[in-house]
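Homework help board

Subject: predicted structure for assignment chain

Our instructor gave us this sequence and asked us to write out the predicted structure in token form, then describe one feature. I got the tokens but I'm not sure how to describe them. Can anyone check?
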Amino acid sequence: MIAAAADLCRSRRGITSLPTSDELYRGGIAAQTPTNLATLSLLSGVAGGAGKAAGGKRSPLDLSIDPIIPLIPGVTEPLSDNAPPLPILQVPTPPLESEPFPVSNIKPKKIGYFWTGAGDNKHKDFLITASLDDDSFGTIIGITDVPSSGNSPHHLGSSADGKLLIGGGLLSLLKTQDTAFYFDVTDPYNPKFDHSNRAVLSSIVDEIRAKPDGGFFITYMGSAAGTAPGRLVETDAAGNIIHEWPEDVPSTLNILGEQFSPHGLSVDFEKGIALTSDFVVPYTVLKPTTGIQKANTLRLWNINSRTIISTIHIPNGGGIQDVKFIPGNPESAALATAVGPGEVWIIYPFRTAPDGTQGVAELLYSLGPKAVDSLAIYSDISADGRLAYFTITLGNHVAALDISDLSNVRRLDDPEEEQPIIGPHYVKISPDGKNLLVTGYFVQAGDISVLNTPADYKGHWIDILDDGSLNFNRTIDFESIFTRNRGGARPHSAVIFDLTDPENPIFY
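My token output:
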């Protein structure tokens, strides 16, 4: 409540200065458990300084943390090898350098950027640039390291102009590291690490959506200490954090009244609305835990005013991981994944519920036994609004639905088929609609967590057939490629650049 009050005061008084470390600590103290108090206390003591916005001005909600333990050749290596896994906070060891990796100088028309964790959690996490062209598929054309390790790289997104990528770190907080990493892709064949930062009030970066005029909206699933509530974070075009929403009184009371753990995010800029879906309270996946705290809600936003309109409930949803608007739908309907029951729900944001609440949720389709309690179900929808694909992580399956007629949804895959994939999670339809890019990795947090899902650590480039069904035939085996010099690779997410038409490049 104290942190929320600080938010409200800042919003109402127009305060833009960065709070001090002591103010940051006091602001979060009421909502934290004893263990997380230690986390927050440590964070407040090691903040390296405020991030700089355009023109050199201090950004009020943007921090960058300097390493606590510096890189010392001959000392860092044994320190990393012998650092014990702690219950929650991890020893903030500096990352190990990797041997040079040979890359190709080809310039494919289709590029896949894979945001990847080092398999041993000791070497630097990194962005892989790989060819998706038929004749050079899987050729590595770039490796871009970030200056930290053990972040558990999570989602990746591109700016609207294709000049900047942002990747989030799911577990960065546990090593008191920055949580968002920005890459300059002005030269798409040679990405460069630009900077990293973290928010003041929130952590655990999840979904990313580009603003048309530059910058991003990003869901941060947890508070600064990994508890609830999280925030919807906004950046400027340079990647500096400029707001952590909500800031108004009614919206803040809304997120304090019911678990606010935003993971999924979809924005309809033309209609001026957005949906965030609440998934889990992050720290409840860490040991010791009485169980993962899962949500059953979505929030409907007025994206122009950055305020919450209403809370939409899905009964027994068991974590609403993802939500996406259906392109071209006349009612601006969206699909949401309810992970517990393994269901797809349709959200009608402009319909009114019997109690007068704006926004109605209706069950659309049950994905079957493989999807029940599958921990993660992520989705993508074709640009024409006809096809929808869902990754069922523990079910080792990718489901395909024809949603062209929402009153008669047709399943295009065989739910009993044993597909050649393990732990599918992140999914994107290629800009030309011919392929589905799926990464075979969700989360493995190790001994400190109850969340460790099987994976094949591959990038699957799956053919989409004329009827929308799938043909599995090509993969990039990142684990094999990077076993020797990084202890393997954990590719969680990807962005596709299609440069087939140089005058009209597509970034997705």
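Reply (TA_rk): Your tokens look well-formed. For the description, you could write something like this. The radius of gyration is 21 Å. That's the kind of observation they're looking for.
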